[in-house]
Amino acid sequence: MHFSKKCSVFKVVLSALLIVALLQLIYLSFLSKLHGRQQRYRYSELFGNAGKKNVHQPEKNTRKERLKYSLSTGGIFDASGQYRVYKNLIKSEFSANQKPGVDGSSFQITLATHTTINNLHHLDSLLERWQNPLSVAIFAHGQDVKFATALVYALSMFCPQIQALVDFHMVCHSGEMASFPDQDREQFAGLEDCAGVFAKLETHRDKYKNYAIGGNVSYPNNLLRNVARGGTDTAYILVIDIDMVPSADLPQQFSALLKRREPASDEVFVLPAFEIRHARKLPASKSELVQLYQVGEVRPFYEELCPRCQAPTNFSLWVNLHGPAAGQLEVAYTLNWVDPWEPFYIGPRTVPLYDENFRQYGFNRISQACELHVAGYRFSVLSAAFVVHRGFKVAGDFHRRKDEENRRNRLLFRSFKEGLKAKYPASPRRC
């Protein structure tokens, strides 16, 4: 009798456990189907047939139609005929609508940058610091053309700040064409939100260096800089590489400077350039940067590889400046260009373009700084603004063909300087 009661209790407990297990299976099955539906919805939202009207998401359908139209044009060829350029592949809400800034005045400055898909993950922290219009030119080759098209579109769909402020342009070889990624469900069906898209970009992180793509593919850095510059209508532009970050609140401080001081038409505003150890947090203010500078965690950009390339900035003078109140930007001092200075600067959109014959490593930025000098520009160094490169530049970080590329571009630079004499015959300046 006692055994029979134990057996009955055991059966009841076992039955209860089985029921709980069954309910859990039903619940998990429900979650799985729900997740599957969400995934299918997300994919359809991104890459589904835009011809099917969705009255609840007219703006997203509009973005999709804009992308399809941009791709359908086939882009335009660059001056050399070697590259296909898709300008405004994805347009931000700012560019599409020219919305005013939060202070009621229009944005006056855009950050223009360039990259391959392997470095696009830097966009997240760059935009977090910049918080203003940003124009990104991406070079894609081979399979990366399709990958880049899909990922920038997904970024514009799932990331509100990117959607609001970032314009994307793409450059590929003239024999390649970008297409809408509606046939790649298995590759992109997992994209659900902004974090997921950046996680996808991380799979391409450091796949190769921009200048070491392989297959004798040249990285057209100056063409990309011009494409990014040409993608904005703001009065002033800051051109930097995507793995560099400006000081905090720079757009607002620079706009305030313009209100206090009328800039000359032949003036550019130099941002002293530094590099920081990878492990360190990027400084936001000059005081934070100077503290790191004094203990060797921050140093002038290219200090190990080409100290002369940045030395004319006069870092010791800049670091020891005792200027205006915190948060107020001023011109600290003005310099004439000297060889081989290659400063980063904010300039009016009217400054000469970069010479697109320069590709790969060497003389690509210095050639443009040289032309500014010959054209009569002066270089005004800002008191408290700067740019910082992530990581120290060291010799071992460069690809094996760097020296060969540098020699080739040095020869090109000589002919470029000769060309400036004909372009600016009245200028007494040479470089």
UniProtKB/TrEMBL annotation:
Localization of this protein: Golgi apparatus membrane
Keyword Membrane found: yes
Entry GO CC: Golgi membrane
Primary subcellular site in the record, as a coarse category: Golgi
Alphabetized InterPro entries for the sequence: B4GAT1 (IPR043189)
Domain of life: Eukaryota
Co-factor requirement: Mn(2+)
Protein name: Beta-1,4-glucuronyltransferase 1
Native species: Anguilla anguilla (European freshwater eel)
